[in-house]
Amino acid sequence: METPVPDATRPRIRLRRSPLWLLAGILAVCLGGLASAFVYLSLTASDPVLRVNRTIHRGEVIQGADLSVVSVGTGVDVRTVGDERAAEVIGRAAVTDVPGGSLLVEGSWGESGVPVGSARVGLRLSVGRFPTTDLRPGTQVLVVALPAQGEAEAELPGSIPASLVGEPAVQTDGSTLLALSVPAGSAELVARLAAADRVALVQTGNGR
């Protein structure tokens, strides 16, 4: 059997690797990895934001215990409030009703000023001096003066319209603390009656 003789006239083909193509391939792999990492981090990253622990009604002052910190994804399309702004929120008043369990959003709080022409008065009332129905902030009531010992009924001042500010707070002795918004001209009278324990509340029909 004859051994084939190489054709000396046929040129040899030498494979050459282009450094530019090799570099482009490495760069493409790196960019693909970075893009995948960016997408993964975008989907899994989270920010600490403020959550409302209980329903805060309009006009109530936001307390530290009303807020907690939770983590939400950065892709959530909600105007959340970062936990670093808690000091900015605490002590301000809610300008809208904020449901408990929801995330605090921008624009839901503001200054806790008292409207012109009105005043706020605190009361401590015992059981039987106010309705046991659901008294919420904004509920309209009448402040009724009770007679002192030996005082004639005709000497009592008339009822004073008021509205509840904030949630009632039940005390360990069974009494309840309430804050009322009353006409400024009647604030001193209501305060004096409250100090003498001569106040009862009547809920009117236009409460919220």
TrEMBL record:
Pfam families, alphabetically? SAF (PF08666)
InterPro entries, sorted: SAF
Q: Which UniProt keywords apply?
A: Membrane, Transmembrane, Transmembrane helix
Q: Where are the transmembrane segments?
A: 20-43
Where is the SAF domain positioned along the sequence?
A: 47-104
**Protein name as catalogued:** SAF domain-containing protein
Species this protein is from:
Propioniciclava sinopodophylli
